[in-house]
Amino acid sequence: MSHSLQVSWQDGLTSYNFGPSHPLAPVRVELTMELAHTLGVFDLDGVVRAGFEPADDDLLELLHDRSYISAVKEAGSTLRPNGAFGLGTPDNPVFANMHDASALVAGGSVAAARAVWTGAAEHAANVAGGLHHAMPASAWGFCVYNDIALAIAWLLEQGAQRIAYVDVDVHHGDGVQTMFYDDPRVLTISLHESPRTLFPGTGMPSESGGPRAEGTAVNVALPAGTGDEGWLRAFHAVVPPLVRNFRPDVLVTQQGCDSHALDPLAHLMLSVDGQRAAYAALHELAHEAAGGKWVLAGGGGYELVQVVPRAWTHLLAEAAGRPIAPATETPKDWQELARRKLREFAPLTMTDGRTPEYRPFEQGYDPADPVDRAIQATRVEVFPAHGIDPNL
């Protein structure tokens, strides 16, 4: 039986844990899964939570250097830093069993890709995944193994001819871009806060693909302070035209929700409602351009109670085909769980009270608007490589 949504899950996913003072707290994933459960997402027809195996070394070596994998294993065993591989920095502290935890996250995303590719599920998710900064031979930006890039590499190994990757995390998806920068089979699109104001300092429109893959790396670098209207205007001006034109076999998305106004590590101003609108647009695009094949992962998100659980519960419900009404109240039991875990009052409803609207870019370019300038810079850089007029 084919499911509408398969969610990779086992309790061990919360073992990817850099310690109590680190912003990438695994409780955000725990609270997400519990909120989705108490709101009935996992009880819907066609939705299943599925166990999976961790990624083995052969799978990890599709993209990661063997010496790096060995270094991760050693660091997780000895708890000694290894600066040559980015292990033991403030962003990427060493923790016990680091390899096992990281390989499990990677296995969850590859399992999601496998479910979609084999037809076991139309859509598949790993909310603990989306570790898009990890590089072939180093940890970077809270990320040890690049699970979402490994899912793409696995799909290519199975015979996929074209994969479209859309990254809506507030930080540039630099690791995924790096791994496929010279591969014309993979279109990487990242919408993020400008590298002038945010880690990792990359992701300008001029980063547009290697000599054999010109135009397949797409970067929309948005100014700090961009809110729902500007973000959605940028998304619709760039993402759907390129993905439709590319005609991917599978749409893979990274759904970092750190673009929210409350996120402590960045400076965009989206609401949960704006993020929900993006999820609906990506769902529609998966059906329109990729035959419904959609692999989705989590990513960044550091407002642990107010934002991440609501955003990703909306994401899972959207992927299940049963979106949650914004005005829905959060369950009392879940509110109490959040209070016990983090001593914080949880949001009472699934909305920030916004009604996201945007003016389509095609209605006119305003050169005085920094968001419009960012959009146009990207379109001018990459649209011609796809045979699309950037001015239409």
Automatic annotation (TrEMBL):
This is Acetoin utilization protein AcuC. InterPro entries: AcuC, HDACs, His_deacetylse_dom, His_deacetylse_dom_sf, Ureohydrolase_dom_sf. Residues 22-317 form the Histone deacetylase domain. The keyword tRNA processing does not apply. Belongs to the histone deacetylase family. It holds the Pfam family Hist_deacetyl. GO terms for biological process: acetoin catabolic process; epigenetic regulation of gene expression. SUPFAM superfamilies: Arginase/deacetylase. Keywords: Acetoin catabolism. Pathway: Ketone degradation; acetoin degradation. CDD domains: HDAC_AcuC_like. The keyword Protease does not apply. GO terms for molecular function: histone deacetylase activity.
